[in-house]
Design a protein that fits this description.
This protein is 28% helix and 32% strand. By secondary structure, it is of the alpha+beta class.
């Protein structure tokens, strides 16, 4: 489900500084973007440039984007951050994210016209300089029906509201190895191998 971005104080700072972030983005070579490892979701056309991955700072990339790095490091409980690019005619299939207890924020930067995000039953279009906040564990999909690359600043942050709900949920018994933790480990291993190249 989508959340109201104004409920999260940091979104104001991101929106006020979106042109600074966009300027740093435009200085990054397209060769520095990496294919997102879960290719079964999209085939081709989804690439990322990471700044933080599951709490680990990617120093080389952060040095290329010093002002963006300062902004994201001021976000309370930020876990993951980077730029996410969708080429024209790319469709990210319906999926649910991980782990629970996090919310995702997208700040539209480039090529938002013709690009949409469905979360649950709601569809929103990205807008340059505006944030969308949503629960990544709700089924969602994205597409670029425009004629330009769509790039957003993507970040995950811990939500105290979601974490308290998780603590009150009864634990599932007999979880098999295909639960969310195994998915996180699989993506994390893929990212670590890509980043070490």
């Amino acid at each position: 489900m989508f959340k109201d971005p104004q409920d999260y104080e940091f979104t104001k700072s991101l929106e006020e500084n979106w042109l600074v972030i966009k300027q740093e983005l435009e200085q990054i070579s397209s060769n520095d973007f990496l294919d997102w490892p879960e290719k079964h979701l999209y085939g081709k056309g989804w690439q990322t440039f990471g700044l933080y991955a599951f709490g680990m700072k990617l120093n080389k990339n952060c040095r290329l984007c010093p002002e963006t790095t300062k902004l994201i490091e001021n976000i309370p409980d930020m876990v993951t951050a980077g730029f996410s690019s969708l080429l024209p005619n790319t469709h990210i299939q319906p999926h649910t994210g991980y782990p629970e207890g996090l919310l995702r924020c997208h700040l539209g930067l480039i090529g938002c016209s013709g690009c949409s995000l469905r979360v649950g039953d709601d569809i929103h279009d990205w807008q340059e300089g505006k944030c969308l906040v949503f629960d990544d564990t709700t089924e969602h999909e994205a597409w670029n029906r425009g004629d330009r690359n769509r790039v957003v600043l993507l970040l995950d942050f811990r939500s105290k509201e979601l974490e308290s709900k998780l603590k009150s949920k009864p634990k599932k018994q007999n979880q098999d190895s295909d639960d969310g933790n195994s998915n996180v480990k699989g993506v994390w291993q893929s990212l670590k191998s890509l980043l070490s190249k």
